[in-house]
TrEMBL record:
The protein's name: NADH-quinone oxidoreductase subunit H
Family that this chain belongs to: Belongs to the complex I subunit 1 family.
Gene name for this UniProt entry: nuoH
The UniProt record lists the keyword Translocase: yes
An annotated GO cellular component: plasma membrane
Length: 343
């Protein structure tokens, strides 16, 4: 392919991801409200559209029409910039996650990933660690003690749980011998999923993902009973929606990363031995990836409406006294696997 064809295909991929992610994030809010209603034995959104399916569009329309209020003592530049940082970090991370293998369309071989880079895992870790700046800037620039406390809590929380998350990923890298998400998926051929080979690493990564995305029971940066709304207390209109979108986009990213690193990614065990058409095989694998991601998203929502919020001291004790030692134990376990079974 010529350089222009590569650029056009990449732009099409980026456009598709942005449009699909915006729609997915909007409807995740709808599904979360429906799932919470189901858990609490009520109906949830059911007025706007059939079974409330147009509710996300009504919410967006409402937020667009609301007045954008900026506190008098706020740092206006950072107050405006903060939600855009959160959104940029959330959406830029999708670039390196493979949703399927190479497929042939219209005579072109197309990788089902925007950028298949060798350091994709480091790219994701680097971007997710930058996400805390959006929350911290929002807390500090608002000129409110509640917002500031929410921003400070988020910084401490992300630092604490990024350590155990990093060590959990180290076990995956040891087994796959690569930092490329595509090669990590290929290394999990058959039933050699990392969730089966290293369950401790899988558990510590999932718990750390909850903390990194500020989801219950780890939503201490928001904590409505204590901090009113935390870091976004002084936000309204579409800037508030920006933080809302970023939270759900990060939840999708976390689910995709769990699927890629631990659940075999797009792999369906031994599907290549069924003798199916190549295009059908790829479509089934893409479907498998989306199903695994959807399952993890449901798990995120299920936990939110099942477990109460931790106290801050419990959050820190869990991060440093439980998750961190378990992630180190996981590395030892993976080293034993490699030495004994030559994996």
């Amino acid at each position: 392919m010529s350089i222009w064809e590569v650029i056009i295909i990449s732009l099409i991929k980026i456009l598709l991801i942005v449009v699909l992610m915006l729609l997915t994030v909007a409807y995740l809010v709808y599904f979360e409200r429906k799932i919470s209603a189901w858990i609490q034995n009520r109906k949830g959104p059911n007025r706007v559209g059939w079974h409330g399916l147009l509710q996300p569009f009504a919410d967006v329309f409402k937020l667009l029409l609301k007045e954008d209020i900026v506190p008098e003592k706020a740092n206006k530049a950072l107050h405006t910039l903060a939600p855009f940082i959160a959104l940029f970090v959330a959406f830029a991370t999708y670039a390196v996650i493979p949703i399927g293998p190479t497929i042939e369309l219209f005579g072109y071989k197309i990788n089902l990933v925007v950028a298949d880079v060798n350091i994709g895992v480091l790219y994701v870790l680097a971007l997710t660690s930058l996400g805390v700046y959006g929350i911290t800037f929002a807390g500090w620039s608002s000129g409110s003690k509640y917002s500031l406390l929410g921003g400070v809590r988020s910084s401490a929380q992300m630092i604490s749980y990024e350590v155990s998350m990093g060590f959990s990923i180290a076990g995956v890298l040891l087994l796959s011998q690569s930092l490329s998400p595509t090669k990590i998926v290929e290394a999990q051929y058959g039933w050699m999923w990392n969730a089966i080979l290293q369950p401790i690493g899988f558990i510590t990564f999932v718990v750390s993902a909850f903390a990194e995305t500020n989801r219950l029971p780890f939503d201490l940066p928001e904590a409505e009973p204590e901090l009113v709304g935390g870091y976004h207390t002084e936000y309204s209109s579409f800037k508030f929606a920006g933080f809302f979108l970023a939270e759900y986009a990060n939840m999708i990213i976390a689910s995709m990363m769990i699927t890629t690193l631990y659940l075999g990614g797009y792999q369906i065990p031994y599907i290549d031995k069924l003798g199916l058409n190549q295009t059908l095989t790829v479509l089934l694998q893409v479907g498998a990836f989306l199903f695994k991601t959807a399952f993890m998203l449901f798990f995120f929502m299920w936990v939110r409406w099942s477990i109460p919020r931790f106290r801050y001291d419990q959050l820190m004790n869990l991060g440093w006294k439980v998750m961190f030692p378990l992630s180190l134990l996981n590395i030892v376990w993976v080293a034993v696997l490699i030495m004994v079974f030559r994996l």
